[in-house]
Structure formats: structure tokens, C-alpha cells
Prior knowledge:
The protein has 291 residues and is α/β, with parallel strands linked by helices. The chain folds into 2 domains: 117 residues, Periplasmic binding protein-like II (D-Maltodextrin-Binding Protein, domain 2), CATH 3.40.190.10; 98 residues, Periplasmic binding protein-like II (D-Maltodextrin-Binding Protein, domain 2, 3-Layer(aba) Sandwich). It contains 10 helices and 15 strands. A 6-stranded mixed sheet has the order 1-6-2-7-15-8. Strands 9, 10, 11, 12, 13 and 14 form a 6-stranded mixed sheet that branches. The chain is globular, with a radius of gyration of 19 Å. The two termini are 30 Å apart. About 18% of the residues have low confidence. It binds arginine.
Amino acid sequence: xxxxxxxxxxxxxxxxxxxxxxxxxxxxxxxxxxxxxxxxxxxxxxxxxxxxxxxxxxxxxxxxxxxxxxxxxxxxxxxxxxxxxxxxxxxxxxxxxxxxxxxxxxxxxxxxxxxxxxxxxxxxxxxxxxxxxxxxxxxxxxxxxxxxxxxxxxxxxxxxxxxxxxxxxxxxxxxxxxxxxxxxxxxxxxxxxxxxxxxxxxxxxxxxxxxxxxxxxxxxxxxxxxxxxxxxxxxxxxxxxxxxxxxxxxxxxxxxxxxxxxxxxxxxxxxxxxxxxxxxxxxxxxxxxxx
Length: 291
Ligand code: ARG
């Protein structure tokens, strides 16, 4: 518990000070590993378009990597935020980004890349935005700006049914191996010796599903991942469950280059309008129904 609570504080502090601010830190950008960036480019479905009448005002030309386009980097292995369905990438992030792009008069282009390459790609000007159920952290704020938050997430632990791991404390105090998606907050928290399980007991995977396969095969004892994908993985695979421990809340936001403050402002304005007119709420409710 201690671990999650403390981590939460730093995330929240970063979030409350930095949302919408152009630059929260002058620290030189740290370079996140730009590992395998095998990319499929998909243009998102226009499911959200009916609900996002573009206001002429917010269409005032913002500069983007490619004129007329909004290039979004994501990692589409994270249901219900982004995942593949047939040849489309769908989910909460895909629809919110589409609604934002519509408001800005831009065509949304989604690139599916390794999660741990997104920040570096946004920072280097390869992508306009990173939209991937991405948690705002102090460390990431050194490299990119974040929009206002549009959703929250909670770190969850998945174990096999019948596992002797009953709580996060059992996991931390034991000798168990934990699977994570490389470069995620679950990875960062778990690899920490102070509060996590430490580097030696963390196994990194390209995506949550690979970690699930490893868990089912008995190669690892648990997975630390955000709660909504955790629920989706447990629903899709027999014999898994989520530990019922109250965890920390994280804030999801869109990463934008520090060199493009206009885009940050435009996206925050669009998010504000899309929140006020109920579009964001509807998109989230569609993928995470509360009734
Ligand atoms: N919220 C976590 C983070 O920011 C995990 C995000 C993983 N997203 C994904 N699309 N695979 O680190």
C-alpha cells in the first residue's frame, strides 16, 4: 500500500501543477528508449464525428508535423483505450483524438508503436501527440507537455485464481515475479526497490497480452497493469483474477511536444468543449458502461 500511496502523491502533485502549463520543468529531456517501432498506420473510424461539430474558432490553423494531419502515436494493446478490431484501431483514445482532430479541422492518423517509444517520438517531432492511456508523471513532464486529464486509471494486480498472493504486500514481500508492459507506470513502480518488487523480479513484455500468456504459462506470478485493460484481460482469459486491494489513481492525458505550445492550447480548448458538451463522457460510457 505504502508504495502505491507514495507514488500516487508524486503523480498527483505533478498533475496539479502542470496541467495546461506550457513548461513545468526546464530540465533537459531524458531520452526514453525508442525500441522497436514497428508501425501500422491506420486512419481512425469516424464514430465520434457526429458528436463533434467543429467550431470555426478552434480551427484556426495549428502547426502539426504534417500539414492538415494530427499524427497520434499509441500502442493499441490496451483495451478499452486502444485496441485492434479488424483493420481498425478503436477505443476511448482513438475516439477522443478523432473528436479533437475534427474540432481542429485536422485528419487523424493513428500510428501503432511500442509504448516505450511514444514519448521520445513526440519529443523528437515524429508524432504530434501521444494518446495511449498515458499517465502524467513528473518524469515524463520533463520530456513533453501534457493536456488536461480526460480519464483516470488505477494500477491493478492480476494473479491466477487460487494464487497464494492475496494482497500487494504479499507480492512485494514474497519472491514472486511480476510481469509488466515495458516503460509503463506499472513497470516503473514495480522495478523500484523502495516500495516495488525491485528490478530483479520484474519481467518486461511488449504488451499486456504477452504478460498474460506468461502468467498462464507459470513464467511469472502476477501482472501489474492499469485496471481497465486488467479487467479486459481477465474477462478474455479463464483462470485469472484481479486482487481486491485499493490502489492509487493515475491521471491519463495527451502528450504533446514542448515545442508546440499552440497545439497544447488548442487541444486543451477542444477537450474543454468536448467535456462540456458531453462528448467525452459519452465516449467513455460507450467503452466502460456504468449501467
Ligand atoms: N497508464 C500507464 C502508463 O502511462 C500504461 C499505459 C499503457 N498504454 C498503452 N496504450 N499500452 O504508463
